Amino acid sequence: MNKNRLKQILQTGNTMLQYLFLSYREKFVQNIKKAVTDYDKMVPDILNKGRKEMYWVLMKCCFRQQIQYKWNLLFQMIGDWLGIYIKICIWQAILNAGGIKNINFEMMVSYSVIAAMVNGLLYSRIAEELADRFRTGMIAIDFIRPISLKWYYFFGQLGENLYHVLFEGFFIAAVSFLLWKLSVPGPETVLIFLISLCFGIIILFSIQYAIGLLVFWMKDGTYTRMIADALFLLFSGIDIPLWFYPDWLKSFCDFLPFSYVAYKPIAIWLGMMEAKQWQKILLIQLFWVLVLFIVERLIWKRIQSSIEIQGG
Amino acid sequence: MSYITVDHVTREFKSFKRPKGLKNALTTLLKRNYEVKKAVDDLSFTVDKGELVGYIGPNGAGKSTTIKMLTGIITPTCGTIKTGGIIPWENRKENARHIGVVFGQRSQLNWDLPMEDTFELYRRMYRTEEIKFRKNTEMFTELLEMQPFLNKPVRQLSLGQKMRAELAIALLHDPEILYLDEPTIGLDVVVKDKIRKFVRELNREKKTTVILTTHDMADIEEICDRIIMIDHGTLMLDQSVALFKSQGADQYYAEVSFRYCKEPLFLDGVELIKELPFCHTYRINHRLVSVNVLLSRISELFEVTDITIKKPEIDEIVRKIYTSQPGETSGQLLYTK
Ligand SMILES: Nc1ncnc2c1ncn2[C@@H]1O[C@H](COP(=O)(O)OP(=O)(O)O)[C@@H](O)[C@H]1O
Ligand SMILES: [Mg+2]
Q1: Residues with CB under 5 A from ligand 2 (ion)
Q2: Is residue A135 located within the same domain as residue A35?
Q3: Alpha carbon of A168: minimum distance to chain B alpha carbons (Å)
């Protein structure tokens, strides 16, 4: 009897799923198609000469904006420097207590220094900013401009980040490299690192943007943002290199986009990846970029008609 | 074919009803109660190219909501809008290229940058040609007298300077339509005047279509040719400013200054509305009292030093319409047209 009942339930479930699938398939396929055609429209937009110029000026503006806060820079430099120093002390203690295979002190230090620079580039207030501008209704201003909201925020943020990395990151890196006599990999590796880092930045900014968009729906984005930040902190390897993680956790990280944002590019810098491996990394990064792009388009399509701008 | 068509547009907002009591609050966690409010309700009107339209109505009438739909920021619940052949929210970016918008209550300037830099950024954003850009910046800088603060960071500017800058930014790319949502809010008379002159000049020179919302009727008087009035999201009135003003023509004011007065003027259709020592202001209904009778009575009763006759301003007509229904809360329009 029990068996029959179970069968019945399974069957009903199956029919329901099929029904849902059929009714949603049409819509889903349409949305995907639309997203892809939009993508076609989008690519020439960024590559267009006039656009490129605008994003360049935007980056310069954000850059210049930061220069006005020179004192910030000094304190940030001191803080970041301390952060790196403390981390290195901890790693040294751990390595002394009993090392991990294939990892030596120099690699640890390099990792910490490069991670600090990467972190500077990855810094993003996109989700927060979107939520904030939504709350105050300032988002209206972004909508009356002939720009893609997403890329506008991307390049604005990138301009700020480049400023910090150029004036702060490079200085810290130079001192660290001299102090601990770190080695720089060959130009080929550096190039691959940079490409993979660019993908990483796009992935993280896309995640941030998608989360930022959710605020139109949920009216308050604090918790989704906190969750995303926590996931990033845990699974990206930005603070703790993933090689400290047990194998099962490491392979779990491989399924999330976060490790492709920080850990994998840094590992490429450290020369831990052979040709086959880094090719795979770049491909998976590309995959994530596309997935996130489609996700963000779908969210956008869903929320567009329900967008409300608060305030008169 | 009209340049802007708004066709039976309705926009609803769902607002979350805050329940009373803890138990009700808990049930709403599972099932939310929304209250649907129509900010704009079956609104239709058209605007031709080059028109200067004053869009007025009491607070909460749905003016800003209409502007947001016209600019493509939000979509209507139903109905269609076309501006210059485009459906604004479907082609938001394309639409944005042809419009300029100033929200009096929010700034689109970058707080940390001087105007010059923002100009440059906007030139790139709208892909304005260099020559047009130079010409426009020069013209706006001169007309709005912005030279003294062009290279100061925006956060150091006064409200009036900021608003002039907003206006210039919104117009750098020669938009065909300019939307102004309460642009003169909180400004002093001199700046208001500058802005009004500027908008008129712009319309004359470039045939820019202007839709302006404001609570200052002097703005309407000096800028607009046409008034559209809404309340509770529905159209109340749509006519030329001249026609609108003639509504109040059945009454006028006489301000009488005198050295000596036997007794105050008392006639049917004449009402003393302001009494100062040596100066009375009367409201006169011209259908009940002829000018001749009025003047002879005044000369009988007063030793007149000066007399001024004033027509009512738009301001007053609007106030009258807003409050004419007894029992309605003040500031709300009557529902009957
Ligand atoms: N985002 C929103 N959520 C809920 N209600 C809104 C929202 N925006 C506007 N409203 C309501 O719609 C009505 C019209 O608002 P608005 O268009 O801003 O009026 P105004 O004519 O003063 O500009 C108001 O009653 C307001 O409460
Ligand atoms: Mg308003």
Answers
A1: A 312; B 64
A2: no
A3: 21
Q: What is the ipTM of this complex?
A: 0.75
Residue B181 CA, closest ligand 1 atom number: 23
Poorest-confidence range of A206-220, A262-276, B221-235? A206-220
Buried b (16+ CB within 10 A) or exposed e, A103-122: beeebbbbbbbbbbbbbbbb
Compute φ and ψ for A274, nearest 5 degrees: -85, 170
Distances A280 to A196, A273, A285, A290 between C-alpha atoms, Å: 11, 10, 8, 15
Residues A108 and A177 in one domain: yes
Residues in the ligand 1 pocket, defined by CB under 6 Å: A 308, 310, 312; B 13, 15, 37, 39, 57, 59-65
Tell me: do A95 and A234 sit in the same domain: yes
With a pLDDT cut of 90, the percent of chain A lying above it is 23
Question: Least CB-CB distance to B71: which of A137, A138, A144?
Answer: A144
Residue A311 placed within a domain: no
Ligand 1 centroid to Cα of residue B26, in Å, is: 28
> Does A212 lie in the same domain as A83?
yes
pLDDT at B334 over 90: no
Q: In a mutagenesis test of the A interface, which of B109, B125, B126, B152 is the best target, namely the one with the most A β-carbons within 10 Å?
A: B125
> Quick check: is A233 in a domain?
yes
Q: Are residues A265 and A200 in contact, defined by beta-carbon separation less than 8 angstroms?
A: yes
Among protein residues, the one whose CA lies closest to atom 6 of ligand 1: B13
Contact A172, A165 (CB under 8 A): no
What pTM was computed for the model?
0.77
> Is residue A140 situated within a structural domain?
yes
pLDDT at A18: 63
CA distance A286 to B23: 50
Q: What's the CA gap between B218 and B193, in Å, rounded?
A: 10
Residue A44 lies in a domain: yes
Count residue pairs from A and B with Cβ separation < 8 A: 78
Are A233 and A120 members of one domain? yes
What is the Å distance from ligand 1's center to B62 Cα?
6
Q: Do A51 and A188 sit in the same domain of this protein?
A: no
pLDDT at B333: 44
**Count of domains forming chain A:** 2
The residue that leads in pLDDT, A193 or A149, is A193
Residue A23: what pLDDT?
55
Q: What local confidence, expressed as pLDDT, does residue A39 receive?
A: 46
**SS3 state at B234:** strand
